[in-house]
Amino acid sequence: MDKFLHEAIKEAQQGLDEGGIPIGSVLVYEGKVIGRGHNRRVQQGSAILHGEMDALENAGRLPAKIYKNAVLYTTLSPCPMCSGTILLYGIPKVIIGENKTFMGEEALLKSRGVNVEVINDTTCIEMMESFIANKPELWNEDIGEE
Amino acid sequence: MDKFLHEAIKEAQQGLDEGGIPIGSVLVYEGKVIGRGHNRRVQQGSAILHGEMDALENAGRLPAKIYKNAVLYTTLSPCPMCSGTILLYGIPKVIIGENKTFMGEEALLKSRGVNVEVINDTTCIEMMESFIANKPELWNEDIGEE
To answer: What are the E-state strand segments in B11-135?
Structure first.
């Protein structure tokens, strides 16, 4: 497996171990992880810290040229918030663990020129399938569904 | 002036007083402010706490039905990140202080059925014009520009 997707999965697993939603992400620049994170809705009572947002926040304030040469890895297809953030910072490439359990704004990203690659990794799929089956209300809250 | 836009402007002014970027926002539900915030890039070294994001984060975890009956006020046209967040939570109405100094993703919001109202309030415009003239590099960083 891609070593950076593996790092994103480790973040997702850490989130699950904390009682949270198992979605993780890493921001990679020049072959190194410069930000990593996972969904913190439960852990921090957060409405905005999806995995991708947490990774970007943990990367800190960065010059535009770094984002524009970075790759964002995420275990799950990015929702509208996270996709909008990818567009804000002009991140040119997103590698997605899976989009079987949730389809995010991949079409919007592609329409704006973002290179989107979907792995559909079985670990990512099984982690989300199990979580959604166990905690459907929490999952619905995270994606703004009733 | 609309009293809620006035509250968003108070948040923007507070951000400016703190040495930050003067953009503020309030989330309104059933005629009451349930979340308020301002851009905290400088104050918290944050890459994701735009004014709208801070207001939503400060509102806390909410059921979908609240977002879907809320109104988001923001002093400036919402960037792709904040617009994506509006779409994630299905916030049906956004009232924007101004879009003269920055045009966000209003077209995307409208294409998804969001009711977008732009006031072009002179206080909002002057606050951003002055800020952008004084700190162009900080402003560019906030919108992912070189």
So the answer is: 24-29, 32-38, 70-76, 93-98, 115-118
Identify the closest residue of chain A to B54 by CA–CA distance: A48
The pTM assigned to this predicted structure is: 0.98
Q: Hey, are the CB atoms on B80 and A81 less than 8 Å from each other?
A: no
- Classified as helix, coil or strand, A16 is helix
Taking each helix axis as running N to C, give the angle between helix A51-59 and helix A3-17, from 0 to 180 degrees, rounded to the nearest 10: 110
Q: Do B85 and A48 touch (CB under 8 A)?
A: yes
Question: Which residues, at least 6 apart from A80, have a Cβ–Cβ distance to it below 8 Å?
Answer: A104, A105, A108, B84, B85, B87, B88
Interface check A107 vs B, CB under 8 A: no
Q: For the segment B99-146, what is each residue's pLDDT rounded down to a tens digit?
A: 999 999 999 999 999 999 999 999 999 999 999 999 999 999 999 998
Task: Give A78's Cβ-side CA count (13 Å radius).
Answer: 37
CA distance B69 to B63: 11
